[in-house]
Amino acid sequence: MSTATISLPAVPEPATSSTPAVHRNWRLPWRQLGRLLLALPVPLAILAFWQAAAVYEWVPAQILPSPSAVAATFVDLLRSGELQSNLLISFWRVLWGFLAGAGAGLLLGVGMGLSPLVKDYLYPSFKTFAQVPALGWLPLLMMLVGIDEALKIVLIAKASLVPVTLNTYKGLQGVPTRYIEVAKVYGFSRWQLLRKVVLPAAFPPIWNGVRYGLTHAWLALVAVELLASSEGLGFLIVYGRQLYQLDVVLAAVVVVGAVGLLLDLALAQVEKYLLRWRRDAF
Amino acid sequence: MSDIAVSRHPLWWLHPAAVPKRLRGWVIPALLLLLWWAAFRFNWSDSALLVPISKVWQTAERLSSSGELWTALYASLRRDLAGFAIGTLVGLLVGAALGLSRLLEGLVGPTLNTLKQISLFAWIPLISMWFGLGDAAKVAFLSLAAFFPVVLNTFEGIRSVPPELIEAARVFGYRRDQILRRVVLPAALPSIFTGVYLALIYAWLATLGAEYLLTSGAGIGNLLTDGREHFWMDYVLLGIVIVGLVGFALNWIASRFEARLLRWRGHSTAQF
User: ipTM strictly over 0.90?
Assistant: First the structure.
């Protein structure tokens, strides 16, 4: 804090500018704490009710194991390393599938967004292809590529390809013509136009597409692992279900939710970083 | 085509711009069909997976005249729409309550947001434990699939109503219910509709997932599963076409409905 003010001699009065900052620093945690306190009763009530239901045997443990049993199973799965190894397998599948799908989607979207010719040729076919959800292609893919790793990667790639392509294309299409006219008046070259005008203007929708793509990739991963897999988080869920061990199912479901949340948060952070130049405008 | 500069070249017709604009979209599907036909005609492969187009058509005719296709389609659509209706209705109510009350939002919002992160299909094993494998389980799952997008978009829609509008309404002496009906609802409607639209798409996706995973009864998903298990490529291809057509039809109906509902907004955005 103090080093920043020293290195910036242009700041006129450091004393007055730092007081509101301190003031805000004091107030912020209280508001967040208040929000947290407000958010807690509902989940706690659910947990308490759930635990009570298990303790007083309102429902058989086979149908709803108690939260403490789920927590114990969670710790067991962690200790044995089963959870980590399955999580890692799922993680790599999502990563490769997503990279392949989002990469292809960016290429396709940029191609269609920048060239009307490419768009004329590809867009109708792409729309038709996108009309069938990833799960609809699943049986065909199972017949064509079997049920190995390739199936998971291809399906996840398809699931992330569609939103990335559509948002990239629409984002590029949506760049206001005025911006491009202004850039032309200033004599921007084609590359400069792309780099300095089109890309920054189209970035928010493109990034939105990437986020949707990752969400869809995670959705597709769980679906394909539930249907055809012998490893991974989805398999852990199926496995628990088959053995009537709902504690395993619930523990795995919690992990699925937590990973989904983490992925979303990570992308939101990246977005904040990439769009830091935009804050100046407001 | 005379205006194309490349036309002097002997191979000018190979240039992508040589195809009339309206036909360009058909080139890739036509090439694929040609490839499919040629693969069969010239016996490039004798894999059981390679079925002629005519066989897919015959299967479609056979299944539709025996009624099998219609039973499956009816079963799928019925549970799709039932789940969609329940999920959307509950989503609208919850979303509106959260949007109108800061207290409720603080209490329930974070829990809902956390639950939303659980990948949709991960619910299926739990739901199958609690509701069995029949239609009740499927409809419960579909309601869940439709619920989340509607809640979020209804909430966002109500929260993003410009405060100036509400102030203006207060100045005009609107009562609370008048503000809700004449100001908040119309302003939030586009966002609410986005949620309903998403719910329709998710519900259809979830219908397939539910039919794959909760294998009992009839449905398009079961048709696809049957085809895959018996290595009947014609069944699978037919199933995919139907899944696509239903998705397309649902989309189309929703966009018509939206255009009608939001007619009063005019076309101001389209003019720019």
Answer: no
